[in-house]
Amino acid sequence: MTMVYDEALERFEPVLGLETHVELGTRSKMFCGCKTTFGAPPNTQVCPTCLALPGALPVANAAAIESTIRIGLALNCSIAEWCRFARKNYFYPDMPKNYQISQYDEPLCFDGYVDVEVDGKPVRIEIERVHLEEDTGKSTHVGGATGRIQGADYSIVDYNRAGIPLVEIVTKPIPGTDRLAPEVAKAYVTELREIMRSLGVSDVRMEEGSLRCDVNVSLMPRSAAEWGTRTETKNVNSLRSVERAVRSEIERQAGILSDGGKIIQETRHFHEDTGTTTSGRSKEEAQDYRYFPEPDLVPIAPDPAWVSELKAALPELPSVRRKRLQAEWGLSDLDMQAMHNADAIDLVEATVAAGAPAADARKWWMGELARRANETGTTLAELPITPAQIARVTELVASGALNDKLAREVLEGVLAGEGTPDEVVEKRGLQIVSDEGELLAIIDQVLADNADAAEKVRSGKIAAAGALVGGVMRASKGKADAARARQLILEKLGVSE
Amino acid sequence: MSDLIRKTAAELGALIAAGEVSAAEVAEAHLDRMAEVEPKVQAFLHVDRETTLEQARAVDARLRAGEKLGPLAGVPVAHKDIFATRDMPTTAASKILEGWRPPYDATVTARLREAGLVILGKTNLDEFAMGSSTENSAYHVTHNPWDLSKVPGGSSGGSSAAVAAYEAPLSTGTDTGGSIRQPASVTGIVGMKPTYGGSSRYGLIAFASSLDTPGPFARNVLDAALLHEAFSGHDPMDSTSIDRPVPSVVEAARNPDIAGMRVGVVKEFAGEGYQAGVLARYHEAVQLLESLGAKVVEVSCPSFTTALPAYYLIAPSECSSNLARFDAMRYGLRVGDDGTRSAEEVMALTRAAGFGDEVKRRIMLGTYALSSGYYDAYYGQAQKVRTVISREFEAAYQQVDVLVSPTTPTTAFGIGERADDPIAMYLADLCTIPSNLAGNAAMSVPCGLADEDNLPVGLQIMAPVLADDRCYRVGAAVEKALESRWGGPLLKEAPSL
């Protein structure tokens, strides 16, 4: 039986480990000149090398090595002065050579760290290694209930993906996260994704498999000194799944341990629909990969001067940038965190760059637009509106041409595809009524219709003016400038504030 | 026209360039010779008269059109059936690749095609180049033209026999542990293992990647140099190919002056286990070098005796991984695919049926040597031996310019004589293996007939990495001196077939 999360955490302490695979966005594959375009017709981006025809040889992609070193530097790693590729030997139909060119005991980058913040608390995640390898082809198992090779009628293989450069980032074991373990795991993968984006080395789309994550979890009783047996959960294909997979494994393992059972060291598969994991192959029957240095390739020996140049040329990293922007915008930790979680920082920054005050930019993206995105089930970035358009709306409000209510209508028009903010204002006739003659006519009518309220104001109960202003706004369908209307009403009734 | 087959490649090239004879006539003369002697020698696995003549006519057309081709334009060459050829099958003498036609050319094949050489066919070899007698071919045994009951050496035995039997003026081979030098030695011709990385492995079906080296066979040193120069040099498709200028081997072959050269006699390669007739010719050759002005000194390389066991760990380890790609999934033999068996079962059945005993023996040896728990004791230790051997070579080359030894301890042995005794078979490569482990250059050049059996003996000349020219200079000096003593090439002594 699984154990409910809170109880599990009372009795056990989780230790995490994350292995993340990032497909690099190089134009050609890791060891041949084939293209890497996603979604090309099956087996159209292949050649003798990535199909492992007899006699074909690999040549390492220099751009991929450079990207890997940049990733290592961004993760505060040391860069190997000399290292080699290694062959990882095992038979599988989607691996053409029946060995994967990877790295074994000589990774290109090692001993780094990533800092994340969870619940306002800083957490340092130590990186064991970052190494470069090649991806396998993609098998599709047809027939059978599970979509896995066991029980399938037949399988088909697409080798387009075979040989795409893959960077594996492995953390050291992460103890001490306590009940925040799922959030820490998610925050770490989120941070990695942003770092990859800022480096421009990968499109890091989890749904397309260009960022893949294996989650290792073990539990130890609160009183214990040694870590427990870990499981490795694969098929974790979204940030939310990272969080759910950790939680689910904690609950499952706690249940087994509480019943006096033992955790089997094994690979498990995460299921998006149920949010739980099921057993894959057991590590006990795991294969001996017979790693040895790849004799078809020469060692990598990055020139230290070049590595220094790469380091100096690294872009501002996401965490540093967030701190800088927070200071520039004068936002609280909480506001900044909320924007981060909502993926709004880039959008707000672009809106500010287009001329909007930071507070306004934040208000629109985190308020009205976040609500819209939520309603339509999209992300902020996917909304059909640009930061420049938001900046224009804030400008119209600042100039008094729009008030907040009208501004919301303008945004609605833009989102509905009616054009730019100015076009929407024009088409929907949303300018604030600035013609005083028209406004005075409306006021006269409102004062006549609300003689009681007018009398109260005239006799000094200025608070009653609110109802009159409301009447003017209603009569003008919101287009009146409320402040000016109030001023004119008081003038007409011969009182002052 | 039948005297065309007795001409050297250099002479044929000159005749063709002068328009005195066409490439087609030269090809036809050799094809006729093949038709005559192949029933006895069986050097070839694949001959296609029409394709060969078509190629020859195309070269004639290129020459008529005034295209500037190399000195071997129009000269025929036979390729060891381990080089990919896009217009002929490529099998590595294995059932697992029966009928496979590569969609691409090996670099060696492509460069020789470009230089105008005409392919006579694909020659026999020990399956996947594993053996020293060509008896391990899955197709048939090849016979030594000097004595049809003897082996032609191996693994490149088809290539050595074809040249020795005047079926081809030139042929290509590969040398992983002696597979060019040993067959050259036992058939009385010249065979050269270039510096590792000096000739491209691209399109050469891999046996042991860190050792495999393509090289030339010819009946004289200059022809070997011409062929060597035509296919060697840096290849961006092979990462282990060396991108540095090398001294011209053709020039060295044309200038056989060795006065003042320091020649080291390897102390460890003589004595017990060596055939008396082999040692007699070898000692005479050393005296000959001295009489030509070389300074001869004895050099001790004690680790060379450990080269054989180290080789039989490294080569099988690499082969166990290199041959994993033959899995019935994408090309070649497929056994047991009746719709009821899993991919894994089909792979296993195919490999069981498709590989011969020696190949299986080495795959198993290598798999074992790389296994976790054994790696350090076997593969790791062998790599250390390899380093020690390289250092001994380096130390020796501080004292001398070249090292010499017998190429192989005995003359050609009988067909079937060692077939059931792998260790006896492996001893044929005792003297040749150290150069493979160190990656340096080495040649076998004929130095006479053994008294007891009247079969050819080879002198091995070893030189440092990228000093291939020294092998040619010394080889040409020996050849010149011996030919004047014999009144012509050694092959004149061969019983006519």
Automatic annotation (TrEMBL), chain B:
Which InterPro entries does the entry mention? Amidase, Amidase_CS, Amidase_dom, AS_sf, GatA
Catalytic reaction list: L-glutamyl-tRNA(Gln) + L-glutamine + ATP + H2O = L-glutaminyl-tRNA(Gln) + L-glutamate + ADP + phosphate + H(+)
Primary enzyme class: ligase
Instruction: Spell out the coiled coil positions from the record.
Output: none
Task: Recite the UniProt keywords alphabetically.
Answer: ATP-binding, Ligase, Nucleotide-binding, Protein biosynthesis, Transferase
Keyword Endoplasmic reticulum part of the UniProt annotation = no
One GO cellular-component annotation of the UniProt record comes to:
glutamyl-tRNA(Gln) amidotransferase complex
Task: Show the PANTHER family listed in the entry.
Answer: GLUTAMYL-TRNA(GLN) AMIDOTRANSFERASE SUBUNIT A, TRANSAMIDASE
Q: Note the subunit structure.
A: Heterotrimer of A, B and C subunits.
Its biological purpose is as follows: Allows the formation of correctly charged Gln-tRNA(Gln) through the transamidation of misacylated Glu-tRNA(Gln) in organisms which lack glutaminyl-tRNA synthetase. The reaction takes place in the presence of glutamine and ATP through an activated gamma-phospho-Glu-tRNA(Gln).
Put simply, this protein is called Glutamyl-tRNA(Gln) amidotransferase subunit A
The lineage is: Bacteria, Bacillati, Actinomycetota, Actinomycetes, Streptosporangiales
